Amino acid sequence: MVKLLDDDDDTDDTMSTSTPTSTSLVLSDQHTNEGEYELVDEATEFEPQYDYVMMHRALSHLPIEEQERMRVGGLPALPIQNLDDDNNAEVVRFKQEMKALWLRRQQELRDAQEPDQVKVLKEHIVIFEKALAAAATAADVDEKELLFALEELEFHASDVDMARDFHTLGGWPLLVSILSSGSASPEAIQSYQFSDEVRAYAAWAIGTAVKNTGEFFPWAVEPVKMQADIPASAHDVLRWTKTTTALSVLLDIFGEWNGQNDVNTVTNSTDYAKNKGGISRKLQQKVLYATGSLLRGNRLAQEHFIALGGPLLIANVLQTCLSDKDWKVSSKVVLLAHDLITESIVENNLGSNDSRNLIAEAFTTKIWCDGAVGLLEASDIRLKEKSLFALETMTPYCIRDEMWQDKARKSMELLRREWKSTNVNEDYDQEWFAELQTLSDVVHAQLF
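^ that's the sequence the OP posted. Answer follows.
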């Protein structure tokens, strides 16, 4: 767990850590002769006080090699003069050196006591900041170093405490900025476009951090401010500002997937080569994973998602995947709709009936309903099973369209005939296949 320095309850008897930045008048806790409080200068009252003799004695107990490490020649000699004589050059020099050595030693002790996991997270944050700063000036970005940090962060983010610490340390806006399919970091506009591989790992880390942890659900819609000064002319500068969220950035990438945004970066890796949808296969997979992680069980994120037009954006992706017979990705998209509708209705996670209906209606438009039926064309019976799961949930809403109802009936009847006329049941566990047939019976009955 991160404990900020401001939260430290321990006090150092050697010195006061108060460092006033202005002078003001406060009431002293000492009574005057008149029985009233006197006014004193706060800057004088709370000026840090150092016991230089005690500091020298404490540091002199360190091993000689440690003293040599801190200062060439070891500790400065204790002056024979009165240490209260601030007009003596030797005394002043001694106090300056001892103060610097003492503060350095205290910081080293604090660093040593800091948990190892916090140190690791801070190292990742430094790498993210460096990459974003380089991207803002179109400088070369060490993506190898960045990828290593993102991969490690995804692993650490599965630990609730480390995910919380990462957010507390200010890492979340940096991670969202790296993922962003736009051209901005919190400080400046990026002239450099991060590769799909980098953004895939960023999406993966975002999904893992929030997944199944209600405490972290608000991060999905937490505002991330991006701004930059854009030269408008030789003498004028325009301040560009944008506030976004992790969920909004993910939807931007779905826009790229549909070919709605410009994409300039192509990697050499097969997994990260651009497909005709505009982004690499790996980025598609991780964006779907992150979106599901942020939406499932998260009422706030679901409402934000609908307000941003998310269901239509992803429905367009589903339509593209079905046209390309990309059954695996299509099944993941359809199951996301199934899960969200199930949560909103069966598990009653969204409160009022109006909000539950809003979710159901958003994910049972014509494109979504056609997608659930279209997935039945997949040759893999496991994917057909996912289609049936989705249809069982979506059919009560989809049958308002009579043309869809007729199409779904024909598809279901064809599937049932195939299963009865072949030995498909011999290739699978009998109990599982019997349950699958029962599910198909339920969906078929819903269509009449």
